Amino acid sequence: MWILTYEAVSREWGNKFLEPYLSNFIDRFESYIVSNDNYEHVLDLIGCVIRTRISILSKLNGYYKFINDEILIKLIEELNKRFLYAGVGYQYENGEIIRIDHQYVHKEIVKPALEIIHNQAFEKVNEEYSNAHKHYRINISRIVLSHVIVLLNHC
Prior knowledge:
Layout: H1 2-13, H2 25-35, H3 39-60, H4 70-86, E1 90-93, E2 96-99, H5 103-117, H6 123-137, H7 141-154
Antiparallel strand pairs: 1-2
């Protein structure tokens, strides 16, 4: 799983990001996370680890369902608690690490909207939202606006 995660993230970032001096991939990831000042990279890495686990388990077991993966659910709950206590303003939700600027707005507006667009009937809207959110996280406002316009056209 760690090698697949490393390869996926390296492709996305366009470079090899782990130090080669540690032989164990888990130690390499830990070293990277602890020593990295770029929180966006750390968030990407965490999201990729979760997606890779789900992907691998889905391929190994055709009956695998995320909602039944008690280990991963507990890890995500722990991750979200740590995000909350650290005040980083992010949470893992519906397969993505999302920014939560304000708890009330997130709970009352964002979370219900995400649940709606996560429905298969809104697959295209969910895809556009995910793209817009990804670009928002890296502060490319022009691209975010174009995704939002496409998203609004699908509604």
